[in-house]
Amino acid sequence: MGISAGFMVPHPPLIIPDVGGGEEKNIQKTIDAYQKAAEMIGRLQPETIVLLSPHQIMYADYFHISPGQDARGDFGQFRARRTSMQVSYDTEFVRELCEAAEAAGLPAGTLGEREKKLDHGTMVPLYFVNQRWTKYRLVRVGLSGLPLSVHYRLGQCIRAAAQSLGRNTVVIASGDLSHKLKEDGPYGYQKEGPAYDARIMDVMGRGAFGELLAFSEDFCEKAAECGHRSFTILAGVFDNTDVEAKQLSYEGPFGVGYGVCTYLPRGNDGTRNFLEQHEEKERAAYLARREREDPYVRLARYTIETFTGTGNVPEMPEGLPEELYQSRAGAFVSLKEDGRLRGCIGTIRAVRGSLAEEIMHNAVSACSEDSRFSPVEAWEVERLTISVDVLGETEKISSPEELDVTRYGVIVTKGGRRGLLLPNLEGVDTVEQQIAIAKQKAGIKDHESVELERFEVIRHH
Fold first, then answer.
1. pLDDT tens-digit series, residues 233-277
2. CB atoms within 10 A of CB 277
3. Closest by alpha carbon to 13, among 176, 132, 196, 171?
4. In whole angstroms, what is the distance from residue 226 CA to residue 150 CA?
5. Which of 31, 35, 340, 393 has its CA 20 to 30 A from that of 455?
């Protein structure tokens, strides 16, 4: 025994009759597909259901697995308190999963519970399952802000736990798709919304799980999806496994995408080692990226690699271009991971004896002291795209008309508060945006007047 099936399902509360009040008829295709999926689960009669929910407790760097013997929940927050359920947890499976995660070096466990009640990402799928099968115990797993590859690895641990215990186990990946499908929808429209839904339904409909790892964080964020990490854990459950994949439905009448797919394992398939294949590609991309980096960026990367690996700042290397030893200037070191900012710290003016020292000091700060992010760990360094901006002299200006977002960075000052934004940043298209973000960074309110300065940079990649 082990994993007998997997399911990709959405969790719109209005699909529950007491919540929808008749409006659920507008997503009848989703209801029909849900019922087919529940019938499959009823036939499989799983001992354990592992449910992956985006609305379970979520931490940036930790997977929360619900502890305890049982839990209950209702739809009271959606004005339907009488629709409720209670579940028993599979404590033995939870223990086995935590041990498998620890052995794999994954940050997962039962610590940090803030809310015992079941979330709607859990209850909506179970509402349908419970109509067909109730003799199961539940394992409820939350997501994290960690990379998709780490979520895939957690899926591998879930499979290992099921196999170790000999449990007949079903895995349900709960998650809506894009929330940005329609201008008149509750979350508005973004072109990435329908693009994400078309792409994810193609991938999941084919069971092409390796392609899940190629979705950039930036693309997913712009699409405002909520289920991608759930689906990626499900993919890890079926690593090295041939599956029979079926798309049962897709629709998005309210501006949010809902998809239902089912997966039945058909035996081992060594060609579907998607994580290994992805990591090989990532390694090749890293080596190519490193080859293209100029000496300024190589110095920053060398510093970060040494610091994250040993906890020590390295000695300044020999053989750098002479200007790094001789010149002095302010510099910013920016880190991105999977297209998303991972750290950015710098100095407006030189505070070190040389530009090389400036870059090394700010590289350490960017990877370990940016309060917006947890410190970069050694295993992440290969995933980082690094840039170094060397700042020119600042000059005071009297009007925003003297700014150009592609050419000039901006410094805003109000009393003792000061904020800086570099030029030519993705997503910053107007001077108004540039000034607003710089104000926000400094804790200056939008309506407050500020002194303006501008500066140019030389950006090193």
1. 999 999 999 999 999 999 999 999 999 999 999 999 999 999 999
2. 13
3. 176
4. 17
5. 340
Cα(385)–Cα(423) distance, rounded to whole angstroms?
18
Pairing relation of β-strands 258-268 and 80-88?
Answer: unpaired
- Using left for φ > 0, alpha for ψ between -120 and 50, and beta otherwise, residue 17 falls in alpha
Task: Evaluate whether 64 touches 58 at the Cβ level (below 8 Å).
Answer: yes
Within 8 A by CB and 6+ apart from 243, the residues are: 6, 207, 263, 264, 265, 266
CA distance 151 to 55: 16
- Does an H or E element contain 355, and which? helix 355-368
Side chain identity, residue 452: L
What is residue 421's three-state secondary structure? strand
Tokens of 308: 């994250």
pTM for this one? 0.85
Q: Is the pLDDT of residue 217 over 90?
A: no
Using the CB atoms, write b or e for 365-401: b if 16+ within 10 Å: bbbbebeebeebeeebbbbbbbbbbbbeebeebeeee
Predicted confidence (pLDDT) per residue in 9-31, tens digit: 999 999 999 999 998 899 999 99
CA distance 220 to 177: 10
Average pLDDT, the chain: 95
Could you count the other beta carbons within 10 Å of the beta carbon of residue 222? 18
CA angle 65, 115, 161 (to 5 degrees): 10
pLDDT in tens, 142-176: 999 988 999 999 999 999 999 999 999 999 999 99
Task: Describe the chain by its helix, strand, coil percentages, rounded to 5.
Answer: 40, 25, 35
Residue 397's pLDDT is 96
